[in-house]
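Hi F.,

I've been meaning to write this up properly since the lab meeting, where we talked about keeping a consistent format for the predictions we share between groups. The idea is simple: the sequence comes first, exactly as it goes in, then the structure tokens exactly as they come out, then a line or two of notes. No screenshots and no reformatting. I'm using this chain as the first example so we have something concrete to point to.
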Amino acid sequence: MENTYIDSHAHLTGNDEIYHQVDVFLERAQEAGVSKIVNICTDIPSLEKGLLLAAKYPWVFNSASTTPHDVDKEGDLVFPVIAKTAREGLLKAIGETGLDYHYAHSLKETQQRFLRRYLHLALECQLPVVIHCRDAFDDFFQILDEEYKVNGYHASGVLHCFTGTVKEAEEVISKGWCLSLSGILTFKKSEELREVARMVPLDQLLIETDTPYLAPQKYRGKGNEPAYVVETAKVIAQIKNISVDDVARATTANAIKLFDL
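Output, unedited:
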């Protein structure tokens, strides 16, 4: 297949239902032209399975951290395991870490503390960060400015599954970061997100599925899987008035560069 895609964010090992189907999912992904997947591990079991998966499928790569939802409950337990794994060179990124004040499953202060710890780990290991941010951009940008610079410049990262405003997207782009769009872009009511897609430079754009969540419009009501990342690429092509080939090439190159794939 001429064009290939990279699913820059999928949870393939986070629950048993998905993990039991993972071989089928990966076969369908390759048939759809997906050449690489970044698997997001959010606890010790998903990390252990992720390492096994990457050993079996060399085109699957792992990123890991506790999510902001879970840092109150699991942060101190999981951090040393992820730090050890990162220092052993077995991860391509740190995350998804970040801040989520919408659901506030963990205290804001705890979320901020662990975001800082994971940013420091990423700097130590020279890895990019994968960020989840919802209703917390002011605090996130402040922490990023304080904690995540090298020689005066922001170190590398991506805002995954971006659903913020155009202004927030512009701030992400101004820091030299990537911005990743998911199947939410294809939803009928995602007008502002389509404005974001229109303004994001092609060389700072990633695509993702966030499997098993957020299936694109064509598959609403079903579980998501990496093969469906193509649907998001098609909508980006329409919005930017470019070819799907251009979207595939750019987002693939961007993911390879960011994650050192």
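Notes:
Strands lie at 5-10, 34-41, 60-64, 93-100, 129-134, 149-150, 153-154, 157-159, 178-181, 205-207.
Residues 6 and 252 are 5 Å apart (CA to CA).

If this format works for you, I'll send the rest the same way.

G.
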